[in-house]
Amino acid sequence: MFITFEGVDGSGKSTQARLLAEHLRGDGRDVVATREPGGTELGERVREILLGGDAVSPWTEAALFAAARAQLVAEVIRPALDRGADVVCDRYIDSSLAYQGLARGLGVERVLELNLLVIGGRLPDRTFLLLVPLDQAAVRRGSNPDRIEREGDEFVARVDGAYRELAGIFAQRIVTVDATQPPQEVAELIRGHIRDLS
Question: Is the overall model pTM greater than 0.85, yes or no?
Answer without folding.
Answer: yes
